[in-house]
Each structure stands twice: as structure tokens, then as C-alpha cells.
Design brief:
The chain is an alpha/beta fold. It has two domains: 7-166, NAD(P)-binding Rossmann-like Domain (Rossmann fold); 173-291, N-(1-d-carboxylethyl)-l-norvaline Dehydrogenase, domain 2 (Orthogonal Bundle). The protein is built from twelve helices and nine strands. It has helices spanning 14-25, 41-45, 71-79, 102-116, 128-134, 145-155, 170-198, 206-210, 218-229, 239-256, 261-278, 286-293; strands at 7-10, 30-33, 49-50, 63-66, 93-96, 119-122, 125-126, 137-142, 159-166. Strands 3-2-1-4-5-6 form a six-stranded parallel sheet, with helices on both faces. The protein has a three-stranded mixed sheet with strand order 7-8-9. α7 packs across α9 and α10 runs antiparallel to α11. The protein is globular. The chain starts with 6 loop residues before the first strand and ends with a helix.
Length: 295
């Protein structure tokens, strides 16, 4: 049996924490870094090794995985002082699970390769914290075919599906499409729950009543019960993340000359909701936007 490759991971947030635990459970040697070191505590207890800078992640790792907040944070972790580029070696592979702007991803990948010979696979995910914990994420990848295949055995422990979408940046385009559907869906579900409540219908019955029909979806089954019960904790994902991805989709549509009026409206409604103090809250709180506005 061949020895497992060594893996490093930067970004121990809601998703990254769960993904790292799955890698440890699968037996991978794991090195971790996070801007807030205390978030690594349970991973260290489970056998991970923590380092003090992103550059140190590259010392013994064959693959370096990222799951970070946005384009600016990824750029800082990769190219900033003490960044990955300072420790990278030719032949290493960076796998970025963050949701970023496609053009920025392509630019950073080209710079990383030219400066140190490290290749880039953009591999954003969908499935939320539940999918990260269960290893059932959908992973959409952009990069060279040989790099995606090299990553596949490791990513098989994180997701139920890895699809190679094309060259670098194609994974991010696919994630933007995913978030357009998710964001619009979440807002319509909030409208539906509010309408049911105001019409005297038990909104807690919506999800089971529509299960298996054309209106059914994972967001419906997750969000509708939470909205109906006003259960907003624990936070499984953030309004700010969905807003950031919708804004990315709208920018991408302008660059591509494509019309995205639904996603544009969803971004504005999400921004309005965030301005009421909900940026760090779960998207289930979108029901409050319609409860407040429809009086």
C-alpha cells in the first residue's frame, strides 16, 4: 500500500475545520495554519501539526489546501509576507476551496506558477457544513487535468463528487452559478414562509408537504423549517458569504456580457438584509427581512 501524501490546510473556519477532521480521520499527515491559532486546538488534539505562517505549510506538504474568506485574504495568504509563495517548491499543488473571482484566480495561479513552479487547482465546494462534516460536498474544479487527478484521491474524502470543469478559474465560474441558484432560492423560500404565515398556514409543514415535488430542494428542506421556527443558531453559513458570491456572479455576468437580473436583485436584497446587522448571521434569518417589510 502506497504512503499517503502529506497535506497542509489554511483556513480553519466553519468549513475548513470539518474538512480537516475528515482528512485526519482518513489518515493523512496534516499541517494546519489559521490566523486565529486557537481555532486549531481540536485538530492538534486529533493529530495535526500547527505552524506559525502560511509559508511553513509548504515545508513537508505535497498538497496545500485553502478555505478562506475571499479573494483579498487568499492573495495575502499566498503572496503576502510569510505567504505560501515564500515556502513553495516546484511540483507542489495548491488546491483552493475558497469562493473567489475567476479572473483573480487565473491571475494568481499564473503568478504562483511563474514564481515558484507550484500549480493551482480552484476547487470550490457546495454542501455547507453538513456536507463538509459528512464528506458529501460537491466539488467543482478548474485546472490542468493531471493536477485535478492528482488531487482526486484526497478530495474523495471531502466530497461525494469532483467534477473537472475546465482550466483554472472554471471551478470558480461554476461556483458562481451555484450561488446564484442558492441565493435566489433562499430569498424565495423566505418569501414563501412569510406568505404562508400571513395567510394562516402552518409554515412548518411546507417542507414536508412539498418534498418530492418540483419545488423541492435541499435549501427548502433546510431553510424552510428553520425560518418557520425562527431557529437561527448555530450559524451554518454566513449572509456575508452569500452576498460576496452573488456580487461575484453579477460582476462575472458583466464581464461575459450575460444578463443576470434575478441574481442582481438577490444581491441587492441580501445587501439590504446585511445592512440590518445580519452579515454574520445564518441565511435562515432572511425570513426577518420579509417579516419586517411586509406589515
Amino acid at each position: 500500500m502506497s504512503e499517503l501524501p502529506s497535506v497542509a490546510f489554511a483556513g480553519i473556519g466553519l468549513m475548513g475545520h470539518r474538512m480537516c477532521h475528515r482528512l485526519l480521520a482518513a489518515g493523512y499527515p496534516l499541517t494546519v495554519w489559521n490566523r486565529s491559532p486557537e481555532k486549531c486546538a481540536s485538530l492538534i488534539e486529533a493529530g495535526a501539526r500547527r505552524v506559525d505562517s502560511p509559508a511553513e505549510l509548504c515545508a513537508a506538504a505535497d498538497l496545500v489546501l485553502l478555505c478562506l474568506a475571499d479573494t483579498a485574504v487568499v492573495r495575502e495568504v499566498v503572496f503576502g509576507a510569510g505567504g505560501i509563495v515564500e515556502g513553495a517548491r516546484p511540483g507542489q499543488l495548491l488546491i483552493d476551496h475558497s469562493s473567489l473571482e475567476p479572473a483573480a484566480t487565473r491571475n494568481m495561479a499564473a503568478e504562483l506558477e511563474s514564481r515558484c513552479g507550484m500549480y493551482w487547482v480552484d476547487a470550490p465546494v457546495s454542501g455547507g457544513t453538513a456536507g463538509a462534516e459528512a464528506g458529501t460536498l460537491a466539488i467543482m474544479a478548474g485546472g490542468r487535468a493531471e493536477d485535478v487527478e492528482r488531487a482526486r484521491p484526497v478530495l474523495a474524502h471531502l466530497g461525494q463528487r469532483l467534477t473537472h470543469m475546465g482550466g483554472v478559474g472554471a471551478g470558480q465560474v461554476t461556483k458562481a452559478c451555484n450561488q446564484m441558484i442558492v441565493g435566489c432560492n433562499a430569498l424565495v423560500i423566505a418569501e414563501v414562509v412569510a406568505l404562508a404565515e400571513r395567510s394562516g398556514v402552518d409554515a412548518s409543514l411546507l417542507a414536508p408537504a412539498l418534498a418530492g415535488g418540483f419545488a423541492d430542494s435541499k435549501p427548502l428542506q433546510i431553510l424552510a423549517p428553520q425560518m418557520a421556527a425562527s431557529e437561527f443558531e448555530p450559524v451554518k453559513w454566513y449572509v456575508r458569504t452569500l452576498l460576496k458570491d452573488l456580487d461575484t456572479a453579477v460582476r462575472l455576468s458583466r464581464e461575459a456580457g450575460s444578463a443576470t437580473p434575478m441574481a442582481g436583485l438577490a444581491a441587492q436584497l441580501m445587501r439590504l438584509h446585511g445592512s440590518h446587522g445580519h452579515l454574520e448571521h445564518d441565511p435562515a434569518t432572511l425570513i426577518e427581512l420579509f417579516r419586517e417589510r411586509v406589515q
